[in-house]
Amino acid sequence: MSNRDSASQRTAGTSVGGRSRATAHRVWPTLLLGLCLGCSKSLAADAGPDISFRNEVQHGIDEGLRYLASQQTTNGWWSTQDHPAVTALALTAFSGEPTGRYKTPSASLEKGYAYLVGSAKPDGGIYQRELASYNTSLAMLALLTGPDGRYDGTLRKARAYLVGLQEDRGERGRLDTPFDGGIGYGGIQKDPDVNNTYTALQALHYSRHLMADQGSRGAKDLDWKAAIHFLESCQNVPGKNPQSWVSTEARDRGGFIYHPGRSMAGGETNAATGKVALRSYGSISYAGLLSYIYADLKPGDPRVAAVMDWLRSNYTLEENPGMGQQGLYYYLHLMTKGLTAAGVNELELKDGRRVVWRREVAMKLLALQKRDGSWVNESPRWWEKDPALTTSYSVIALETLWRGL
User: How many C-beta atoms lie closer than 10 Å to residue 392's C-beta?
Assistant: First the structure.
């Protein structure tokens, strides 16, 4: 396996992130979402943390969690029983509260974890009826924040389930179609896409310590080389990606589309050639960046550099670039995770300006917070009219930002 520190080669005494393997999966603040890279540099570069602004952000977090607590059903789930992903995001938000007040789950939060475990299927997936990989991936992240080891059995099975969803459409073992290596929703929706691939890679990356456990002996890991192949097949890089849809416009170069041949941002038809060039857009480009990071590509890798160039050129907090208000909160959520995981403290834009993006994103989220502590998008695309979902996105982002201020 290339470009990867194979988890299966680790021994029982190996440490992850400076902690023993046995406790690595319970350290949300420094490991779970990969959101501490660069934080120490940020604080070291200044006199110290901005206590006053941190307190403002903490207040926003507190209000968001208070709202989420009021929305949990007596059965333990949030918003909908049909999609464990929403409950998983809410639980992840509680587990990441900076002061650690939810380190020991309350009885109500325990009900949330029990609902996730109760949604596990014999095949290892954690879902109800549909969107199997999406629900499984986010449920895994939440269960990784649970008390040490309690959910390892469920997590091992879920990990194997996700690995089994990786596509190999052409000749077996050969990367001979653009879809090879990707992961889709599962079930009847099998076409791989960047977002489902990203959520799966995230869950597999942060559960990799389980590959060294005795209970996972002989378990198959993801073909990470194939996953990178799929991601390359969704990146707008003319000359490197040979597919006919690749845009030659500078405004699209380096960004990502949803899956080979389809962009949620649409495309443009060349009147002379009839060729349709697909447009890059914001949220999926951050998903692509994070996927490359989880696949262990380094900052100097030309594929990573290309998407970073696109993100710098399209930096905005007013919309999801290419999509307007659709998916705005997911975009801000992924921006926070992506730039933090990439170790970016100040983002240098195309015009040479350097922005203190953590402060800007935090201020934007605080300005958008409703009086009841929630966040909601008036655009319903991608479920963002569901305040449980958008509030979870926003709280997780603020918790991450808090640690870098």
Answer: 30
Partnered with residue 72 across adjacent β-strands are: 78
Say if 222 falls within a structural domain.
yes
The CATH number linked to 126 is 1.50.10.20
Spatial distance between the Cα atoms of 192 and 180, rounded to a whole number of angstroms: 8
Model confidence pLDDT, tens digit, residues 44-67: 445 577 899 999 999 999 999 999
Please write the tens of the pLDDT for every residue from 219-274: 899 999 999 999 999 999 999 999 999 999 999 999 999 999 999 999 999 877 88
Q: Decide: 290 and 341 in contact? Cβ < 8 Å.
A: yes
Q: Are 229 and 197 in contact (CB under 8 A)?
A: no
Does residue 49 sit within a domain? yes
Establish if 6 belongs to a structural domain. no
Distance of CA 145 to the CA centre of its chain: 15
| Tokens at 357, concatenated | 């993006």
Contact between 355 and 311 under an 8 Å Cβ cutoff? The reply is no
Tokens of 33: 């979402």
Structural domain includes residue 17? no
Q: Rounded distance, CA 192 to CA 241, Å?
A: 17
Query: Rg of the chain's alpha carbons, rounded to an integer?
Result: 20
SS3 content of the chain, % helix, strand, coil (to 5): 50, 5, 45
pTM, full prediction: 0.90
Tens of pLDDT, residues 350-371: 899 999 999 999 999 999 999 9
Determine the structural domain holding residue 92 and report its residue range. Answer: 31-404
Question: How many independent structural domains does the chain possess?
Answer: 1
Specify whether the CB–CB gap between 135 and 155 falls below 8 A: no
Q: How many CA atoms lie within 13 A of 323 on its CB side?
A: 26
Question: What does DSSP assign to residue 143?
Answer: H
